[in-house]
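Z., the sequence and structure:
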Amino acid sequence: MPHPTGPDPRPLIGEPLALDLLNTRWVDAEGPRDLLESEDGLAVWLGSDLVREHTAPLAPTADHETLTRLLEARTALEALAAATASAPSAAATGRQDSATPAATAATAALNKVLSHGRIRRSLGANGLPESAVEVDDPSWGPAWYAAENWLRLVADRPDRIRACANGTCVLHFFDVSKNGTRRWCSMAGCGNRAKAQRHYARRTGT
């Protein structure tokens, strides 16, 4: 089984799990990058604090089956995130009449992932309720947790699911700012580049 081979190379980490999965793809000076292009990259992602916090009870392994199922979830989430970004008002109100064929297909794909797991509720020996996640196979665990996290995000504030305003950036974030005005994946990255571009345009009149 592959093991983490170094620090997480991604420029944005720590977003909610569904968006953290989307952020396994990014663009840097060398072009498009994909952490999940190999089982070694999967091991890095599974070894991150955020992912281990969610999936630790299932102890998923960085193997072909886990990677395949995780990519299935990511593809669905990418389409759903694009639909949310293109129709924020519809997403915010929960309307489904504006769903595109791509969004409808992505919804079906995400529901397929979700069908491989469930939350079992029970009454514990101490008289308090308990919850436990059950999946058909541990390899479905990471994909299921990411899909379930998307449900939580759209139930909470779907209008706060954002793509970076830099058109060449593919990163996503959940805007937790008070006024909901965050535009960039990070001010240190895309935010500063946009600021520098505006400054240059003012200086040169272009």
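The mean pLDDT is 88. The CA atoms of residues 114 and 148 lie 7 Å apart.

Let me know what you think.
H.
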